[in-house]
## 1
Amino acid sequence: MYIIYDGFYLKHDTGHGHPENSGRLSSIMKALGNFKYRKNLKFKSPFEADNEMLNLVHDSKYIKNIEKLSAQGGFHQIDPDTVVSEDTFRSAKLASGGCLKGIDLLFSERDPIFFAIIRPPGHHAFSDHGSGFCIFNNISLAAKYAMEKYNIKKIAIIDFDVHHGNGTQSIFYKSSEVFYISIHQYPLYPGSGWYDEKGKSQGSGFNLNIPVVPGSGENDYFIAFIEIIFPLITNYDPELILVSAGYDAHRDDPLASINLTEDSYYKIMSIIMYMSIAGTQNNPGKKRVKTGIILEGGYNHKATALSVLSTITACMEAERLASNRATVGLNKLIDDFPISRVLAGNRDIFEIIKRNAKI
Ligand SMILES: [Zn+2]
């Protein structure tokens, strides 16, 4: 598994007291220092995405504006939450470039997984403006780059950040080449992400929002993943899975009210790994679905660092099972899971989503 990281990410300065700060990444890197699977990780440096690459998603005018504001120095608010300062442009190009580097590694080297530990995050960035701490839409750029350079036709994006990835949704809203699935707290910033936003024209049916009520926890997420996300992704049969991995649905996160724990992220990632591996076990001719994990939010430093370790642990353990040709343990995970109760506030929505999607 490749870990993509660069010390320059720490230099994107959002100003005093901003939740999206360099401590997020330094605590993750510190936790990786004595992590039990450290020897299995291959650390790689990103490259800077150039203008042509950024143009895969973003308007030239917007890119130029970020470049200009960074060059001026000082602090510039491009929306109430999003700051551009001296090192922002380069950090944002390295963040996007880190994800593109991950795609290159997946399609040219041996390992089938990367985790890009980057900032600024990306899923609230639109083609022509940034918002919600995000400058460039890293995961959308990775998806477009995989399509252009490696001729990938079907990509699933699973976004488990606690906020709706409104930027990513808007970029692929009319496309069937990307199936965007987001599970997020609702209501919450940015206010979008209701279940009836299903995509338009060619993209109709390829955008799925699973809004969950404040106070939801592991049971709700587990049921959503097993009963909704897993069957839909299996049916879509993607060539690449990209994950918008935000850890702000952790119960200790200051910005939201969902009660996941680091162990919940282990379970979620195990299910995603099962999607990536299971097809090859049931069908020997089928290729492994390569998987890119891209950091989004997560604002309690300790919770985020532990949850990143849980995510990587789930990948490592699934890999070990797969290389021993053992069945990856989704059934076991389901068996071990207590008979779960979905919160009343989510039950009806889950049923409507299942009915709409004919699962
Ligand atoms: Zn978030």
## 2
Amino acid sequence: MMQSPEAARSARALTAELVKAWTYFWPERKLQGGGERGRGERERGGEREGGERKGGEREGGERKGREREGGHNAGTKRRHEDEEASSNKKLVIDHSVKVARHYNSLQEVGLAARSRSRIFFMRNFNNWLKSILIGEVLEQVRGVGSQQVCVLDLGCGKGGDLLKWRRGGIHHLVCADIAAVSVDQCQSRYEDMKRKSYANEKLYSAQFISADCTKEVLSEKLDDPALMFDICSCQFVYHYSFESEQKADMMLRNACEHLKPGGFFIGTTPDAFELVKRLEASDSLSFGNEVFKVSFQSKGSYPLFGCQYHFSLEDVVDVPESLVYFPLFEHMAKRYNMRLVLKQRFSEFFEEKVKKEQNRSLMMKMMALEPFPCEDGGRQATDSTGEYCHAKEHCGTSGRPLGTLSRSEWEATSIYLVFVFQKMS
Ligand SMILES: C[S@@+](CC[C@H](N)C(=O)[O-])C[C@H]1O[C@@H](n2cnc3c(N)ncnc32)[C@H](O)[C@@H]1O
């Protein structure tokens, strides 16, 4: 993609500014608090990270004040630059093979086995959330007159979203993933769906590509190289690319290069601020509960790319992932003429969308929340103590049964955020 010299210069300047913001943001707090922060400070830190813009502004103000102090700050700045340089050296690590191997090895399980999973409701909840996101973006695309909607599912996995695209009545789907076994299973699922589709149903056409989307140019693999997409959907995938700048940029290029003007790049990814907040609040290098665990190699310094942690979730995920520093992601997307239109934590997205009757009824259909108390002598997803205290408390006040997730599942799903970028014309 060509860039004017002015755009390249201003992009470089902005990157430098973001690098500064990042390196000042985290290590500075450690230097001030000496590592052992009290509860009050931790909570204030939480507030600041939650309200990202406010935090950024305040941090900017504090930074100026410190810069005026001179000597000590010059030393601190140098230390940050040294840290930055040494962390950049780590970028040679390439986890693609490990990631592909892990996802390839996952067994496809039937509905019966899935419904026995400890995280059955959380997975349904995540699926509900994706369905709402996809449904709303499809509505917007149609609103501006696109009738034959083309979609790129970047990191499609085994085809968990094939049905959502069918419900959305799209025209064409391209599915791409690094895990070749998953792509094959995705294709079989699509073909099965096609065989079983109604006689008068016009199911979308589809292409399946097995490729490392952080290294290969997808457009070179398209059956129709001139194909332009209305939507690129990248669900629970983009963070794998933040291992290096080159990889993050290639995945962005694949997501955005073939989007029509006005088209959308949507996705879900862990919120780096939330992960770091939980890490800093932990006494060790990891945190989690009975369903998930996140382990870092160190804390206090967080490189822009290749800030790796290990993520495991029940029997579904067990891989190295990288923090996505969102302001940098947003900035990089500008190179592809993309404007951020929505960034919301899962909790915020849920609270907003659940207000709509039709979203609530989809939630029931998808069994996206667990009934509490459980019905007719059944059992909750877990017997562990404390997992439903919040629900008990709520029931006590309202006296009515409710839909919920166990505490551990809420803690796992609330790591994530939803993003929507739109291509400017
Ligand atoms: C958590 S799964 C999500 C699958 C699917 N998007 C969904 O929501 O059900 C992450 C997927 O990202 C894929 N992935 C990871 N790194 C990738 C890369 N470099 N290129 C393409 N796909 C990648 C994995 O193989 C895996 O299928």
